[in-house]
Specification:
alpha/beta, Amidase signature (AS) enzymes, 11-stranded mixed β-sheet, 444 residues
């Protein structure tokens, strides 16, 4: 990131940059509504920052705890919560020299198609303010796209980094689970949730990964041996519109075809994903129920309807159902490994639909096809979460399309650096990469 190089060399003053970002938020976020809290001490902290990120201002999705800065989880239940300590990833970011400048908006506990909650109305898409920024890292994606912040951290369970990145026209990177160690994750061996990055280029995402890449014995996933990083000179590329099972709108299928044609030498292929949608729904329901049912039992309708619906999906789930889903998950992971023995990258849409309007409600149909639940439209991303593979959403601009298309690029587990290098190469080609949106506060 050229900005970090200028901070390290002294050509840019970190405190002045933090003050500039706070000013941009004050000036523009009344319209965008991407930041739920800001750090008034950011300039002071920037003066003391050192390390590989050397004063780089960050946005942090408000699901992650930040010491001394309000952390609401998008819930009115925690609207006054100020943690005494950082989430371990945020602590590593501070040690690397990052300045936590703002907490970015999210639906309550990260669940919902709209980046909205009872504390802050919907985060707008900088390309069209009447449209959604995506869920659930929509605040992070919108702030980066609009030029309020140079980078942000999000979280991704079923697509919550990649979908907003696709909607807002930025890079959204979900690393292989374990790359960004989570030593306090309650289910230590689980690989569904992970933090990720929202940036304006793949190279920026790689720089952030390298700065925060650190194994931790308290996270068993982080201790695995990974393939050595490195570019692939002549990649074998496959593409699929829907993985054979995901509902995807015709507009996104057409955009994927255009992107594959622009890249060239792409074959049509995908792993067998049968059973993946059903398995993910069971595992997701069990995880949410385990984590949040005590809050439902205590606070009831003080939780949003969406959160209550999600918790209820886990009511009555049996151990047999859970283990059958885990069995499906293991089989899917092995099929993806077999696929990536023959291919290096898989191209997919990063979202099944174009950004929808704020007043559209939940996504219950695509091109006239009724969906089975409110999360089915995320199948094109949550199947990849289930597989354990790293994935990245890269902006692509089909000719004649006003809104960005997120090209989801998937690689084998552990091949994060090769994935980021491949995406960075595509950004040099016409039609790929970040373009300033209609609502834009300027470059850095």
């Amino acid at each position: 990131m050229a900005l970090v190089a200028s901070l390290q060399s002294g050509r840019r003053d970190a405190a002045a940059l933090a003050t500039d970002c706070l000013g941009r938020i004050a000036q523009g976020d009344g319209v965008l509504k991407s930041c739920i809290s800001v750090n008034p001490a950011a300039a002071t902290e920037a003066r003391q920052a050192n390390g590989p990120l050397h004063g780089l201002p960050f946005g942090v999705k408000d699901l992650l705890a930040t010491r001394g800065l309000r952390s609401t989880q998008g819930s009115a239940l925690f609207q006054d919560m100020v943690p005494e300590r950082d989430d371990p990833l945020i602590a590593r970011a501070r040690e690397a020299g990052a300045v936590i400048l703002a907490k970015t908006n999210t639906p309550e506990f990260g669940f919902g198609a709209h980046c909205s909650n009872r504390l802050l109305s919907p985060t707008a898409n900088p390309h069209d303010l009447a449209r959604s920024s995506g869920g659930s890292s929509g605040g992070s994606a919108a702030a980066v796209a609009a030029g309020l912040l140079p980078a942000a951290i999000g979280t991704d369970f079923g697509g919550s980094v990649r979908t907003p990145a696709g909607f807002c026209g930025v890079v959204g990177f979900r690393p292989t689970p374990g790359r960004l160690a989570a030593p306090e994750r309650p289910l230590a061996w689980d690989a569904l949730p992970t933090a990720g990055f929202l940036t304006r280029s793949a190279r920026d995402a790689r720089m952030l990964l390298d700065a925060l890449l650190r194994p931790d014995a308290h996270d068993p996933l982080s201790m695995r041996n990974w393939p050595a990083p490195g570019a692939i000179p002549s990649p074998r590329i496959a593409a699929s519109e829907d993985l054979g099972v995901a509902p995807v709108a015709a507009s996104e299928r057409t955009a994927l075809q255009a992107a594959a044609k622009a890249i060239g030498s792409v074959v049509q292929a995908h792993p067998d994903c049968s059973g993946a949608i059903e398995a993910f729904k069971v595992l997701r329901a069990a995880h949410i129920h385990q984590a949040l049912s005590p809050l439902r039992d205590r606070f009831g309708e003080q939780l949003t309807e969406t959160v209550r619906w999600n918790i209820a999906r886990g009511d009555g789930l049996s151990a047999a159902e859970y283990l059958a889903a885990e069995r499906q998950r293991g089989a899917l992971h092995r099929r993806f490994l077999e696929f990536f023995a023959r291919h290096d990258f898989l191209l997919l849409p990063a979202a099944s639909i174009e950004p929808f309007r704020h007043d559209a409600g939940e996504v219950l149909e695509i091109d006239g096809q009724t969906l089975g639940s409110v999360i089915d439209y995320l199948a094109i991303t949550f199947i990849i979460s289930l597989s354990g593979c790293p994935a990245l959403s890269l902006p692509y601009w089909p000719e004649g399309r006003a809104l960005p298309f997120g090209l989801q690029i998937v690689a084998a587990p552990g091949a994060d650096h090769a994935l980021l290098d491949f995406a960075a190469g595509l950004e040099q080609q016409p039609g790929f990469g970040f373009r300033p949106p209609a609502f834009y506060m300027g470059d850095f």
